[in-house]
Amino acid sequence: xxxxxxxxxxxxxxxxxxxxxxxxxxxxxxxxxxxxxxxxxxxxxxxxxxxxxxxxxxxxxxxxxxxxxxxxxxxxxxxxxxxxxxxxxxxxxxxxxxxxxxxxxxxxxxxxxxxxxxxxxxxxxxxxxxxxxxxxxxxxxxxxxxxxxxxxxxxxxxxxxxxxxxxxxxxxxxxxxxxxxxxxxxxxxxxxxxxxxxxxxxxxxxxxxxxxxxxx
Amino acid sequence: xxxxxxxxxxxxxxxxxxxxxxxxxxxxxxxxxxxxxxxxxxxxxxxxxxxxxxxxxxxxxxxxxxxxxxxxxxxxxxxxxxxxxxxxxxxxxxxxxxxxxxxxxxxxxxxxxxxxxxxxxxxxxxxxxxxxxxxxxxxxxxxxxxxxxxxxxxxxxxxxxxxxxxxxxxxxxxxxxxxxxxxxxxxxxxxxxxxxxxxxxxxxxxxxxxxxxxxx
Lengths: 216, 216
Prior knowledge:
The structure is a homodimer.
Chain A: E1 2-6, H1 11-20, E2 25-30, H2 33-49, E3 55-60, H3 61-66, E4 70-73, H4 77-85, E5 94-97, E6 102-104, E7 108-110, H5 118-125, E8 131-134, H6 141-145, E9 154-159, H7 162-173, E10 179-184, H8 189-193, H9 195-205, E11 213-215
Parallel strand pairs in A: 1-2, 1-4, 2-3, 4-5, 5-8, 9-10
Antiparallel strand pairs in A: 6-7, 8-9
């Protein structure tokens, strides 16, 4: 299974690529192909030193979509719509949104678009045959990158296509110690996306770092 | 410290009263005083059989407010505004909202009022001197009542009054194994209230029961 990461050299994308690459073919996209190539070279080097073989390839964002079965949109919300507008070829692909629409004021707050959530905005912008899921929303960038630490967190996955959701949940469950939970249809993805500003507030007001979530 | 529970004979209120009564003076309010008296007699009996002494007193909702330092509004969202409108005497009290505005469609969904959250609606309706916090949102009714089970859950507490929030967090931390987290100001209480429909969906779609949350 080939996973393309749009924005794969960003805060979230780079660590995510390293976590996924030992198990999947990961195609890392960036606005600048050269940046993706450099990022992948560094990641391959780092993983090699850890004794891990991997498949990582740096390309443009468009090539990351074209070459993949599953596309992860690792893009900050503020660039999401503009980035998607420059890309194509999402037909029949599974598209994963880990995007959280939020703002930092004195505190972090969930500020969804008129569609209700980032995932619903993605669904609206893509062709109808794209199978959109939300997943990986709650994993902090630092956690993705801290390869020495297992990720003991719950990951709710929302989506309307049963088969797509099952495949995304399998990827979640095969990544570190992440545990996928079916979060329901895409219509309720707002409640998952709002977890991240909540967790950032919890970290901030309780002097914690990179807070994750577990269901019990 | 005297805790009054408005709606103290309801799904959440009754179990909450039993959990709090061994440590605090708990004044259980109901629309029908007789119902509160009966509920308290049954609860006292149950706690006695468990070898626990307690202070529980059944009164009307208004008497529960008048006699308490801290008032917990254990009311379903659909009755919240109408119930508050019939009550008075909230001046200078700490008022705790565990209320979650949500609807059950094919799934559970967070449907906040125009104010942004149930807690913000409460704040708007009460006199300015009432010190409103949101807390206890995420504990399922069945969990409150299952006295043999410790509650190993995180409880985010939101509020704008530092002293009130500290007192509410102390009550949370002294209840079973609940762990209070400062969730930030009341302005972000929507993100806490939306946890409950999220957890109900997680339970539903993953065949779990009474799902709670932990931060890690």
